[in-house]
């Protein structure tokens, strides 16, 4: 299949008064046309910074220090700000968990969607208006002809998120990056937004990267999942594999720490003890070692390589070495999903 995005050994740092924070450390992944790829992990693991690096919208102290970002066959490193602005919002777009920070409160939804199109496409205002109405209809907003004349404050949270998705898609981008798009919404609206995103894939063949800490969200929409920890991808597999055959202890911990609707409501959830690593002084070995009850001496001294399994299931963990003790989520005696 056609690869819309390829990221190869990307490193991103923030140069602060305290020192260099190595937020992303050698991340590699790809996204195929029409595919939905999830990124999961705790806050601070590097998910959002990875995508801000791809979009080229890091703040002034942030910098991609190494690696390649190839979008739609073009290398993004070294492109001018003007060229990147043409790509952002046109060929690839990003939406955030709070649409009120992205929508301008003093302009109507219609004005913002129309201006967004005219900036990137050579079309008339009437064509842009019709496309705006069509996109609001696609994302399930009722009475779209009326809605384009309203301001963001006249929309509920779920309606604003739908409008934000419509605005992101109005120029038919090849890639949509969604950063925690359902976090601030109640469960019913979350389900509706996820259904909207599924319909978008079907109707527009748009590739989606979904950033979330919610494994349930990932399972409902994603084809593949990247689990991140300490600025690295520690496990990559299909969504089915991550749920039914996880191999990294961190992934086991994530699954044990969320409720399982198939089990008793009295079942005790098991948190992951300890704190994430300090990326001002990143560890030499596996970043999960201090919190991992299965760690070995080699884990402290050397970063594990990526072990590959059937179905492009990849895991960076020394437990996958042929000489390591064989463990699995079910064999730890703590349950799981």
Description:
With 337 residues, this protein is of the alpha/beta class. The chain has 11 helices and 12 strands. The strands form 2 sheets. An 8-stranded mixed β-sheet has the order 6-7-8-3-9-10-12-11, with helices on both faces. The protein has a 4-stranded antiparallel β-sheet with strand order 2-1-4-5, with helices on one face. Strand 9 and strand 10 form a beta hairpin. Helix 3 (109-120) crosses helix 4 (125-138). The longest helix has 18 residues, at 187-204. The model is unreliable at 333-337 (pLDDT under 50).
Features:
337 residues, alpha/beta, 11 helices, 23% strand, 4-stranded antiparallel beta sheet, 31% helix, 8-stranded mixed beta sheet
Write down how many β-strands occur, each being a DSSP E stretch of 2 or more residues. 12
Low-confidence stretches: 333-337
Strand content: 15-25%
Shape: globular
Question: Structural class, from secondary structure content?
Answer: alpha/beta
Instruction: Sketch the major β-sheet.
Output: 8 strands, mixed
Alpha-carbon Rg, integer: 21 Å
Terminal Cα span: 32 Å
What's the quick description here?
With 337 residues, the chain is an alpha/beta fold. Helices cover 31% and strands 23% of the residues. It has an 8-stranded mixed beta sheet with strand order 6-7-8-3-9-10-12-11, with helices on both faces. The protein has a 4-stranded antiparallel beta sheet with strand order 2-1-4-5, covered by helices on one side.
């Amino acid at each position: 299949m056609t690869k819309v995005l390829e990221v190869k050994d990307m490193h991103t740092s923030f140069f602060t008064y305290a020192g260099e924070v190595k937020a992303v450390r050698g991340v590699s992944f790809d996204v195929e046309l029409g595919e939905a790829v999830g990124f999961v992990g705790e806050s601070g693991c590097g998910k959002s910074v990875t995508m801000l690096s791809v979009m080229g919208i890091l703040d002034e102290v942030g910098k991609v220090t190494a690696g390649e970002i190839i979008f739609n066959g073009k290398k993004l490193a070294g492109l001018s700000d003007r060229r990147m602005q043409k790509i952002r919002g046109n060929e690839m777009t990003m939406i955030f968990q709070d649409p009120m920070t992205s929508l301008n409160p003093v302009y109507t939804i219609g004005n913002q969607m129309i201006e967004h199109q005219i900036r990137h496409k050579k079309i008339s205002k009437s064509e842009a208006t019709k496309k705006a109405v069509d996109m609001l209809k696609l994302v399930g907003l009722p009475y779209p002809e009326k809605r384009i004349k309203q301001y963001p404050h006249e929309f509920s949270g779920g309606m604003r998120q739908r409008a934000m998705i419509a605005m992101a898609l109005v120029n038919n981008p090849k890639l949509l990056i969604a950063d925690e798009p359902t976090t601030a919404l109640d469960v019913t609206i979350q389900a509706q937004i996820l259904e909207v995103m599924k319909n978008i894939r079907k109707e527009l063949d748009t590739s989606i990267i979904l950033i979330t800490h919610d494994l349930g969200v990932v399972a409902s929409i994603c084809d593949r999942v990247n689990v991140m920890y300490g600025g690295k991808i520690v496990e990559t597999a299909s969504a089915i594999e991550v749920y039914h055959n996880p191999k990294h202890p961190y992934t086991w911990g994530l699954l044990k720490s969320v409720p399982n609707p198939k089990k008793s409501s009295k079942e005790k959830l098991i948190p992951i003890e300890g704190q994430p690593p300090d990326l001002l002084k990143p560890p030499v070995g596996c970043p999960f070692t201090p919190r991992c009850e299965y760690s070995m001496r080699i884990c402290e001294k050397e970063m594990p390589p990526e072990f590959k399994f059937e179905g492009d299931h990849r895991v960076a963990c020394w437990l996958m070495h042929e000489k390591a003790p064989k463990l699995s989520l079910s064999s730890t005696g703590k349950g799981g999903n």
